[in-house]
Amino acid sequence: MQLAKLEETGDYLIAPDPESPRLTRAIEGVDQSGERVMLPVVEERPLTIYLNSQEIVTAMTIGDYPEYLALGFLRNQGMLRDDDEITGVDYDEDLEVAVVRTTRETSYEDKLKKKTRTSGCAVGTVFGDMMEGLEGLRLPAAELRTSWLYELSARINRTPSLYLEAGAIHGTVLCRENRPLIYMEDVGRHNAVDKISGWMLRERVDPADKILYTTGRLTSEMVIKTALMGIPVLASRSGFTAWGVDIAREVGLTLIGRMRGRRFTCLAGEERLIRDTDPDTIPEEDRKHRRKSAEG
C-alpha cells in the first residue's frame, strides 16, 4: 500500500496536517543497538473548556481545532442543546482556554459532580447522566454498501496522518457514502470524535446519511457519542465491547468492527448492509501496513 500524496487529499474538507511543526517535537534517544535516533513525538497541551462563566473540564489534546473540540465536548455531554443560540467561541492560545458563549444562562454544578471515568486512552470523561439522552432514541434507517466500506478503508489508511508520522494518536473520520470528509486526530479518540461533533454543530451538518470511522475500540462511550450525534453507522479497524454492542442494537446503530483488507464483522444493524462487492475481489491488507489497533 502506497501513501497518497498530500495534494491527493484535497477533496477532504479537513485533512490531517502531519507536517505541522506545532503538533510534534523531535526528541533524541537511542535504539535497541545503542545508536542515536531522532524521533518525532506528538505534543500534548491542556485545553480548559468554559461554558459561559463556568469552567467545565481540562482536556489533554494536541492543540488543533480547539473551538471544534470545545463545542463538540459540550454538545456530546448534553450541555449544549439543539435550540441553543451560540453567540461566540473564543480561544486564547496563551491561556490555553476555550470559552463557548450562549444566550441561555447555564449552570451545571450538579452535573459536574456525576463524573464517570471511561475506558480508553487519555482517560476520557463521561457524565453520569449521559445515558439519559438515549431514551427513546432510534437512529434513521440508512443503507450501507460494502463497496463504501472497502473504499473508505483503503482511502483513509493511505491518507498522510500524524499517526503514520509519529504514532501515539487516534483518528476519527466523518464520511458520506464512499467519501471521507473530515479527518480529525488526537491523543484520545474521544477528543477526535468531539472535534467532528463540534464541526458538525457549527456547520449545521445533517448526520442522517453519515458514517463515522474510528481507529479506536468500539466502546460504550464511542457508541453513545455517535448515537447522540445522530450518525447511523460506526465503523472501526478495532474490536468491540459487549456493552457497546448492546447500546448499538438498542438505538439502531450499525456497528462494523475489525475492518481491514477484505474482512470486517458486523455486530449490530446488519439489515442495513447491501453486499454489492465480492470480498474475494478485495486484496488482503499487507501486515506491514496495519495499524496497531487492527490487532485489537
Structure description:
By secondary structure, this protein is an alpha/beta fold. Strands 11-10-12-13-14-15 form a 6-stranded mixed β-sheet, with helices on both faces. The chain has a 4-stranded mixed β-sheet with strand order 4-3-6-5, with helices on one face. It is globular, with a radius of gyration of 19 Å. The protein is about 25% helix and about 30% strand. The chain has helices at about 65-75, 110-115, 145-160, 160-165, 190-205, 220-230, 240-250, and strands spanning about 25-30, 35-40, 45-50, 55-60, 85-90, 95-100, 115, 125, 145, 170-175, 180-185, 210-215, 235, 255-260, 265-270, 275. α1 (about 65-75) crosses α5, α5 (about 190-205) packs parallel to α6 and α6 packs parallel to α7. Residues about 1-10, about 115-125 and about 290-295 have low confidence and may be disordered.
Mean pLDDT comes to 87
Order of helices and strands: EEEEHEEHEEEHHEEHEHEHEEE
Terminus-to-terminus distance: 21 Å
Specify the structural class. Answer: alpha/beta
As residue ranges, the low-confidence spans are 1-8, 116-123, 292-296
Adjacency order of strands in the biggest sheet: 11-10-12-13-14-15
Q: Shape, please? A: globular
Put simply, the count of helices is 7
Number of strands: 16
Strand content: 25-35%
Helicity, as a percent range:
10-25%
List the helices and strands and how they pair.
Elements: E1 24-30, E2 36-42, E3 45-51, E4 54-61, H1 66-76, E5 86-92, E6 97-102, H2 109-113, E7 115-117, E8 125-127, E9 144-145, H3 146-158, H4 162-166, E10 170-176, E11 179-186, H5 189-203, E12 210-214, H6 220-228, E13 233-236, H7 242-251, E14 254-260, E15 263-268, E16 273-274
Parallel strand pairs: 3-6, 9-16, 12-13, 13-14
Antiparallel strand pairs: 1-2, 3-4, 5-6, 7-8, 10-11, 10-12, 14-15
Helix pairs in contact: 1-5, 5-6, 6-7
